[in-house]
């Protein structure tokens, strides 16, 4: 049996560890396919908000372990855990004070091992954070740097300056909180550089010692058994004068070095870039397939919301047209919502104004350059819009990433500080604290949602498990269906261009499987005529209900779609080539009979009936030639003409293998 590198302790796995395609390892419960992330369903969760096992009001790792069956039941195959490391938690753990431990609030390394092992037993992989760009100002590296003399190796771990005038072209990301990317440090007697909060000094990637330190961190986490690392804020690792200090060539060179390190030491591990950039700059994080395996598609996210509001497919088609193809082995990560604001950095000024107007009417809903809201409130709690957006998320090219709570349509609280309103406790049932914790409600890490429309007493897992019509059950069915068709995770995409711009239609194809996706982006019924002539003869099967639709002919394929409806339909592979091959190799048989009448209406009719299916299959004028012919029956025959030039016209009834 193949040995998975997952089982090996840190530093002992080697490249020559055996691998056998997508076989499932009995010891780990995980398929050993190194491209596992292409078929994955990722579930992003905040451990502190998921489930509290010890009643201190804070979700923890053992709480998560207790809820793995729920995640498994959902159909998820990988969990992305938000930051776990010790931290002052001024940026929810993205301000790391120790890279090689977990925060006591969430548990211990041993607890994390329990989560990893128990998840693996259920066929679920674990992805967590690698925050390389910056640390907390409480990290010992920074504490020692600010006290060390300028020019010393310790000092050189961070980026210092005597003036705040360097790198002036770099934008301020947290513009609601920070006036500058430089902050004066009295101890160091110098300014230090930070792209985020002033308590998050940027590490100095010009210093090779920082690279070495990061490689150790990577080996630590992979050694623990995590399968993937999300590279937080990866475009900002290096700085250079007269640039915007984003996506610099040095950053890509470092990522290639990191990837080479990982490839030499580990197997089936995955790097996921967080690069909030325009498509071309974002795609650069795949390199030539030698940087990150995965990469969030930031620009498509707001455009999905834009498209359903404008009732027009243009924003989606346009941004995908600008998206370069991904190198083999690479994959986009697609998402609707996450733990941050719905960022509007990668849209035009007009688009941003539009998004604010339609999705963030109240000032409290806006933060930095974005909208701090969850999926359900964003779409006015409209179930059909949630389904449509998920339908797109799960069928556009890439791997879907679901944000915890969105599978039950959880609400948010825009009156909490920063992005906390979208990070509130998971709603398990209608008990105290939504079943999240046994603690005094006043002690909870964040308050549960009590907005009347999204109150935890109504919106919770238990209630939705008990109702097979709930959003939760619908999401489970969506996930299950997606997992049956690898074309979604691995296939090509081909947009159709119907006249009705309120309808988005595309084909996903992989290894002979073709899926047609048609989505009505409008609140009203729409019709659409699709050019599917390439698939003539194939009868689409709607995948949710397995309903057989009328076959495709040479004419446009006509569909009507209800408000925000979307269809996934399997198209049988067009057997055009097969028909061509059949035609070339077909020889019309000779049947000897006493007379034409005997052959068409008499005793020897069966000879002709047996020969007819093969004959019909090769006739270009016969529309049913692309389907399986089960039998033919001559129901009538008329002789035309006399002697050698006589012809017989026949009426033949055909039966197909299906229908
Ligand atoms: C991106 C993370 O998603 C966000 O939550 C964090 O505040 C910044 N990076 C800084 O680490």
Structural class determined from secondary elements = alpha/beta
Bound molecules: 1-deoxynojirimycin
The strands making up the biggest β-sheet line up spatially as 1-2-3-7-8-9-10-14
**Rg from alpha-carbon coordinates:** 30 Å
Shape: elongated
> What's the average pLDDT?
92
Total helical elements: 18
Structure characteristics:
disordered N terminus, six-stranded antiparallel β-sheet, elongated, 659 residues, binds 1-deoxynojirimycin
Explain this structure to me?
With 659 residues, the protein is of the alpha/beta class. Helix content is 25%, strand content 17%. It has 18 helices and 24 strands. The strands form six sheets. The protein has an eight-stranded parallel β-barrel. The chain has a six-stranded antiparallel beta sheet with strand order 15-16-17-22-19-20. A three-stranded antiparallel beta sheet has the order 4-6-5, with no helix packed on it. A hairpin with a 2-residue loop joins strand 12 and strand 13 (370-371). Helix 5 packs across helix 6 (249-265), helix 8 (300-310) packs antiparallel against helix 9 and helix 8 (300-310) packs across helix 10 (349-359). The chain is elongated, with a radius of gyration of 30 Å. It starts with 41 loop residues before the first strand and ends with a strand. 1-deoxynojirimycin (NOJ) binds at residues 91, 94, 131, 196, 232-233, 274, 339-340. 1-deoxynojirimycin is lined by residues 91, 94, 131, 196, 232-233, 274, 339-340.
């Amino acid at each position: 049996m193949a040995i998975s590198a997952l089982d090996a302790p840190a530093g002992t796995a080697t490249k020559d560890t055996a691998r056998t395609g997508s076989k499932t390892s009995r010891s780990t419960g995980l398929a050993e396919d190194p491209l596992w992330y292409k078929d994955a369903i990722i579930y992003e969760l905040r451990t502190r908000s998921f489930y509290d096992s010890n009643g201190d009001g804070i979700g923890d790792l053992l709480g998560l372990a207790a809820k793995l069956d729920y995640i498994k039941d959902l159909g998820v195959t990988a969990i992305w855990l938000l930051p776990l490391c010790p931290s002052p938690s001024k940026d929810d753990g993205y301000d790391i004070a120790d890279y090689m431990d977990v925060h006591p609030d969430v548990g211990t390394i041993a607890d994390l091992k329990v989560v990893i092992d128990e998840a693996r037993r259920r066929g679920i992989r674990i992805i967590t954070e690698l925050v390389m760009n910056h640390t907390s100002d409480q990290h010992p590296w920074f504490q020692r740097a600010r006290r060390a003399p300028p020019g010393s190796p310790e000092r050189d771990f961070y980026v210092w300056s005597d003036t705040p005038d360097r790198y002036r072209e770099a934008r301020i990301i947290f513009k609601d909180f920070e006036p500058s990317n430089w902050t004066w440090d009295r101890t160091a007697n110098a300014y230090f550089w930070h792209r985020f909060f002033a308590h998050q000094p940027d590490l100095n990637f010009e210093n090779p010692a920082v690279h070495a330190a990061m490689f150790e961190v990577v080996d630590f986490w992979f050694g623990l058994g995590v399968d993937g690392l999300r590279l937080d804020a990866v475009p900002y690792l290096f700085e250079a004068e007269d640039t915007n200090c984003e996506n610099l060539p040095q950053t890509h060179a470092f990522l290639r070095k990191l990837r080479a390190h990982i490839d030499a030491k580990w197997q089936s591990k995955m790097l996921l870039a967080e690069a909030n950039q325009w498509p071309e700059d974002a795609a650069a994080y795949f390199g030539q397939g030698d940087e990150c395996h995965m990469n969030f598609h930031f620009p498509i996210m707001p455009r999905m919301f834009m498209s359903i509001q404008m009732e027009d497919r243009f924003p989606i088609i346009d941004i995908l047209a600008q998206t370069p193809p991904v190198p083999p082995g690479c994959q986009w990560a697609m998402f609707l919502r996450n733990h941050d604001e719905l960022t509007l950095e990668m849209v035009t000024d007009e688009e941003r104004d539009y998004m604010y107007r339609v999705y963030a009417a109240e000032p409290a809903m806006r933060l930095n350059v974005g909208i701090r809201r969850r999926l359900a409130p964003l779409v006015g709690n409209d179930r059909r819009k949630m389904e449509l957006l998920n339908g797109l998320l799960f069928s556009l090219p890439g791997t879907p990433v679901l944000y915890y709570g969105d599978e039950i349509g959880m609400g948010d609280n825009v009156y909490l500080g920063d992005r906390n309103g979208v990070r509130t406790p998971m709603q398990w049932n209608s008990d105290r604290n939504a079943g999240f914790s046994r603690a005094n409600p006043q002690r909870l890490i964040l308050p549960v949602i009590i907005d009347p429309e999204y109150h935890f007493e109504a919106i919770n897992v238990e209630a939705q498990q008990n109702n097979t019509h709930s959003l939760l059950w619908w999401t489970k069915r969506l996930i299950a269906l997606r997992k049956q068709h690898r074309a979604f995770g691995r296939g090509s995409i081909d947009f159709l261009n119907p006249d009705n711009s309120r309808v988005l239609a595309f084909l996903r194809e992989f290894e002979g499987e073709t899926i047609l996706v048609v989505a009505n982006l409008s609140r009203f019924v729409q019709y659409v005529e699709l050019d599917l002539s390439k698939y003539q003869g194939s009868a689409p099967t709607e995948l949710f209900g397995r309903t057989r639709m009328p076959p495709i002919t040479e004419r446009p394929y006509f569909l009507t779609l209800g408000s925000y409806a979307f269809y996934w339909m399997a198209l049988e592979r067009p057997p055009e080539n097969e028909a061509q091959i059949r035609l070339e190799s077909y020889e019309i048989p000779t049947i000897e009979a006493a007379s034409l009448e005997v052959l068409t209406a008499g005793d020897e009719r069966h000879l002709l009936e047996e020969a007819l299916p093969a004959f019909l299959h090769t006739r270009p004028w016969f529309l049913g030639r692309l389907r399986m012919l089960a039998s033919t029956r001559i129901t009538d025959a008329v002789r035309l003409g006399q002697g050698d030039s006589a012809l017989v016209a026949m009426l033949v009834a055909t039966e197909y293998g299906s229908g």
